[in-house]
């Protein structure tokens, strides 16, 4: 069950695109651990080394716009990112993240209220982001999306339903 | 030119609101319009102001940006901005009575509420007469397209543990992104795909010889009007040029489609875009859609279905409509549809190998927003680094030195695109400090260009003609950019690092602008060459 995620915030801007998250030249890589070494390389080439397990990405609007490459979501997940919070997500990235079991929170308010480096807790049960000073409510994800996310991604979700 | 009279300016302002738009209509810069306005004492157009009380009341009544925005005839996002301005961030605890008027099941299907193409198409897939916006439907696609990333799809498919794909005849795989293989790793992926299609009996496999996946799908008649396609490529929206519903998904999701034949989709809101007017000399479908993206922004159509109407669109060929549908992805579009007509019918003659049922929107269909454009005075447009909505008129960017010009891709690699570029390049040479790559969209386009002497023209002009495929567009191979280099491309994305070094720059424009730029070695207006 997806309940609480605690981590440190990395604050990025608007329109963080898939080429910035995962470069086209790395698309032939199939091993997710190796993909992780290139996560957000286009944003900051040392970014993959700076990420610590459990870190949270905070994006502005239209996060993940561009290509259908799911490696953008996979590389973030395997680099240790526990959750991506953004004002809005691009459609394909949203689906890919859910299908890879990468937790997402859509919140228009969070971007202005959270600071880089801050430690926050994302509480999926109550539907709020908790910081030292404040609580920011966010809308729940659709039931079908939560189902996939809670199973850890689409593959596991499908395996489970095929077993039934 | 003649300075417009006060009443003419007022009329234009009522219609076009901003100085920028009035300027575009008159073909003058915005500051000149502002100057005339000041001279004639016409105040700047201002948006209707909503009082704190009004916004607060609506927020407390609905607690929902969309519904509250509807009352003011403004968008969800616009209402949110007003709410934020007045610091009304928390959801109201107690809602007023109007909130209790909830939508009954079946609403939106009544006589007074028509359906959009997206609603009708998805309803048809589940055997219903209508579906509501926001509803989630499980549907079986008519086409599941993958390219080189089928390698990753296969890996995920094996993971699921199903042995046979749901329907080998609905799967199409052209190899194009890294074709021929640029590395050993890609060679392995290509090999695994070749083995897989044999094992599964997938007949619609096109090896590296055929061309860019979207072009191949259209040419070979793999998608037809009214059908639903999913593809592991964001520009799958292109098939809307034939009146189809088509959209991009990730590799894992495609593995699930291969395994189960089903995908969940949310019925999207729709935008109605009407484009009227005759495209001026040197201005093309590419310029029109870049202009629109500049207006609507890169997320202007996120999660939404875009429908195209108007006499400009009706007069466009399938190739030009393809460019519209392809680039609609760059404003986030889920579907981008040009309704079926005689042009579509003619294109499909001899290509369509099964019967099809075109879908039209109802006259009283409900759109989230409707936009109208008149392009009869549009100038050539250029999308500047690093976002596709950073669109400027040619005058603002001409003179910028360019190291590489790329003509081709799924956006603009068809015969009409090559033809206009060849017309400009005929008897001329690419500037010695610039290199030009030509990337035909498919083998059949390449052959046609060869037949018509265009390839000779390109070679004589010192262009490098590449095999049909995607290579440089996504920085995979064949023409990457070094640090500090600039490329003007007819492709669809100019993101940071897209075509190589994160410190390089990509500008997007039409094939005519590309050819003019290659000749002069700097961003140039194609009309300088066409007028002569």
Keywords:
heterodimer, A: 164 residues, globular, B: 532 residues, alpha/beta, Aconitase, domain 3, 4 domains, five-stranded parallel β-sheet, 37% helix
Question: Could you characterize the architecture of this molecule?
Answer:
The complex is a heterodimer of chains A (164) and B (532). By secondary structure, chain A is an alpha/beta fold. Chain A has one domain: Aconitase, domain 4 (Alpha-Beta Barrel). Chain A contains eight helices and seven strands, in the order E-H-H-H-E-H-E-H-E-H-E-E-E-H-H. In chain A, strands 4-3-2-1-5-6-7 form a seven-stranded mixed sheet, with helices on one face. In chain A, strand 6 and strand 7 form a beta hairpin. The longest helix of chain A is centred in the C-terminal third of the chain and has 10 residues, at 154-163. Chain A is globular. The model of chain A has no long low-confidence stretch (mean pLDDT 94). Chain B folds into four domains: 6-39, no CATH class; 52-100; 110-378, Aconitase, domain 3; 381-530, Aconitase, domain 3 (2-Layer Sandwich), CATH 3.30.499.10. Chain B is built from 22 helices and 18 strands. Chain B has a five-stranded parallel sheet, sandwiched between helices. In chain B, strands 16-15-14-17-18 form a five-stranded parallel sheet. In chain B, helix 2 (19-26) packs across helix 3 and helix 8 (150-160) packs across helix 9. The two termini of chain B are 23 Å apart. Chains A and B meet through helix 1, helix 5 and helix 8 of A and helix 8, helix 9 and helix 11 of B.
What is the structure about, briefly put?
The complex is a heterodimer of chains A (164) and B (532). With 164 residues, chain A is an alpha/beta fold.
Which band does the percent of strand residues of chain A land in?
Answer: 15-25%
Summed up, the domain count of chain B is 4
Helix content class of chain B = 25-40%
| CATH superfamily (homologous) name of the largest domain in chain B | Aconitase, domain 3
Tally the beta strands of chain A: 7
Radius of gyration of chain A: 15 Å
Helix-strand string of chain A: EHHHEHEHEHEEEHH
Which structural class is indicated by helix and strand composition of chain B? alpha/beta
Please, what is the average pLDDT of chain B? Answer: 93
Cα(first) to Cα(last) distance of chain A is: 19 Å
User: From the alpha-carbon coordinates, what is the Rg of chain B to the nearest angstrom?
Assistant: 25 Å
Overall geometric form of chain A = globular
How widely separated are the two ends of chain B? 23 Å
Number of helices of chain A: 8
């Amino acid at each position: 069950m997806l309940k609480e995620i605690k981590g440190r915030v990395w604050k990025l801007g608007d329109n963080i695109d898939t080429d910035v998250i995962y470069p086209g030249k790395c698309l032939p890589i199939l091993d997710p651990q190796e993909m992780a070494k290139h996560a957000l390389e286009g944003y900051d080439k040392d970014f993959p080394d700076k990420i610590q397990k459990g870190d949270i990405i905070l994006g502005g609007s239209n996060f993940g716009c561009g290509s259908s490459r799911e490696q953008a979501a996979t590389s973030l997940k395997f680099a240790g990112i526990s959750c991506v919070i953004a004002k809005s997500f691009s459609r394909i990235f949203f689906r890919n993240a859910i299908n890879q079991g990468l937790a997402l929170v859509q919140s228009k308010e969070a971007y202005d209220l959270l600071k880089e480096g801050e430690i926050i807790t994302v509480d999926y049960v109550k539907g709020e982001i908790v910081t030292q000073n404040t609580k920011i409510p966010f809308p729940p994800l659709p039931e079908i999306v939560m189902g996939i996310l809670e199973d850890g991604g689409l593959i596991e979700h499908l395996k489970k339903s095929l077993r039934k | 030119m003649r300075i417009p009279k006060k009443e003419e300016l007022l009329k234009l302002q009522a219609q076009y609101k901003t100085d920028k738009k009035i300027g575009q209509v008159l073909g003058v810069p915005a500051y000149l319009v502002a100057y005339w306005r000041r001279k004639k004492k016409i105040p700047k157009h201002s948006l209707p102001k909503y009082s704190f009380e009004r916004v607060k009341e609506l927020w407390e009544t609905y607690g929902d940006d969309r519904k509250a925005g509807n009352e003011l005839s403004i968008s969800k996002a616009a209402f949110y901005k007003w709410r934020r301005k007045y610091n009304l961030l928390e959801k109201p605890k107690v809602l007023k009575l109007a909130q209790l008027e909830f939508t009954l099941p079946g609403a939106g299907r009544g006589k007074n509420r028509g359906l959009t193409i997206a609603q009708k198409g998805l309803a048809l897939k589940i055997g219903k007469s209508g579906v509501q916006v926001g509803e989630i439907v499980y549907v079986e696609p008519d086409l599941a397209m993958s390219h080189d990333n089928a390698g990753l799809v296969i890996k995920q498919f094996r993971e699921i543990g199903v042995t046979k794909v749901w329907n080998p005849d609905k799967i199409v795989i052209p190899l194009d992104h890294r074709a021929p293989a640029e590395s050993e790793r890609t060679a392995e992926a290509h090999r695994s795909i070749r083995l897989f299609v044999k094992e599964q009996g997938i007949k619609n496999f096109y090896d590296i010889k055929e061309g860019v996946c979207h072009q191949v799908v259209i040419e070979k008649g793999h998608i037809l009007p009214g059908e639903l396609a999913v593809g592991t490529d964001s520009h799958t929206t292109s098939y809307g040029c034939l009146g189809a519903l088509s959209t991009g998904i990730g590799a894992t999701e495609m593995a699930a489609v291969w395994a189960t034949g089903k995908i969940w989709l949310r019925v999207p809101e729709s935008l109605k875009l009407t484009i009227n007017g005759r495209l001026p000399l040197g201005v093309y479908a590419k310029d029109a859609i870049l202009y629109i993206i500049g207006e609507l922004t890169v997320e202007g159509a996120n999660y939404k279905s875009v429908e195209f109407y108007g006499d400009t669109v009706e007069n466009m060929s399938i190739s030009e409509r393809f460019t519209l549908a392809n680039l609609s992805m760059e404003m986030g579009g889920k579907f981008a549809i040009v309704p079926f007509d005689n042009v579509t019918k003619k294109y499909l003659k001899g290509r369509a190998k099964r019967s099809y049922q075109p879908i039209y929107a109802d006259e009283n269909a409900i759109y989230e927003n409707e936009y109208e454009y008149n392009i009869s005075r549009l100038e050539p447009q250029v999308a500047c680094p690093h976002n596709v909505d950073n669109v400027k008129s040619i005058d603002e960017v001409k003179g910028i030195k360019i190291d590489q010009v790329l003509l081709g891709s799924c956006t603009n690699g068809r015969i009409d695109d090559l033809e206009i570029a060849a017309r400009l390049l005929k008897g001329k040479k690419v500037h010695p400090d610039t290199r030009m790559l030509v990337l035909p969209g498919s083998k059949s386009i390449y052959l046609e260009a060869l037949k018509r002497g265009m390839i000779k023209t390109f070679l004589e002009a010192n262009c490098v003609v590449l095999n049909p495929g995607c290579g440089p567009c996504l920085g995979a191979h064949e023409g990457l950019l070094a640090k500090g280099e600039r490329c003007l491309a007819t492709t669809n994305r100019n993101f940071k690092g897209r075509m190589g070094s994160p410190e390089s720059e990509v500008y997007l424009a039409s094939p005519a602008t590309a050819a003019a730029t290659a000749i002069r070695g700097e961003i140039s207006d194609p009309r300088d060459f066409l007028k002569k």
